[in-house]
């Protein structure tokens, strides 16, 4: 049986507004039947803090630190918590809710999509596995974690190695389409990350950062060798093809499509009303 053909885009390093606008545009085009399901890889220029759709900027985010580190800033259309996009491979998957291989529940769809990430880690020689809470306490921790930092705790079916979270994802469903995107950490500057959020006091910040070290890890902190972004892309592209049981066809945006994405980026994701609305 022939594998289903999905599109694949490697966007390279793009601005935060372009990255979010392109994910949204791909969702729109897929909902209209103009393109098949698609997997996209991308990076960030400049390095960026993205926050979840429901996060409160004034309450949670240290905007002065973002400015001091010369970082970009953008609100995602997906939920979840704050992510520092710096030394990482970012991915997005766009696929119809009605796709025969996509479960109806959000958590089960996470599991299916994240199978590609799991296999990518295996191609890099890492013994990754899914976070599946077993006890009532573990389930409560997934729901009730108070941190604004995405990698502070794994969610259902996110990827962990040696008990620590190594990839974080977020999902939204709009117009009958699933958009899941997330971060695969190659390296992580914990001090920079924790400077970007607000805390009741310095003692709380230090306690949370100390706890974080036991909850999250980057690939190159545990790999026996240094993994480059190029090697990561090769491993995870192969992983997604295997995990989703698909064949990839390269896709390049035409001039009109690029113009549309730049327009959306400017009107929504560079708009203070969107980024600071909460």
From TrEMBL:
Pathway: Protein modification; protein lipoylation via endogenous pathway; protein N(6)-(lipoyl)lysine from octanoyl-[acyl-carrier-protein]. It catalyses: octanoyl-[ACP] + L-lysyl-[protein] = N(6)-octanoyl-L-lysyl-[protein] + holo-[ACP] + H(+). Keywords: Acyltransferase, Ligase, Transferase. PROSITE patterns: BPL_LPL_CATALYTIC. Its EC number is 2.3.1.181. One of its GO terms (biological process) is protein lipoylation. It is an enzyme of class 2 (transferase). Pfam families: LplA-B_cat (PF21948). Residues 33-248 form the BPL/LPL catalytic domain. The keyword Kinase does not apply. Belongs to the octanoyltransferase LipM family. In the reaction, the free carboxyl group of octanoic acid is attached via an amide linkage to the epsilon-amino group of a specific lysine residue of lipoyl domains of lipoate-dependent enzymes. The reaction proceeds via an octanoyl-thioester enzyme intermediate. Catalyzes the transfer of endogenously produced octanoic acid from octanoyl-acyl-carrier-protein onto the lipoyl domain of GcvH, an intermediate carrier during protein lipoylation. Monomer. HAMAP family: LipM. This is Octanoyltransferase LipM. It comes from Bacillus aquiflavi.
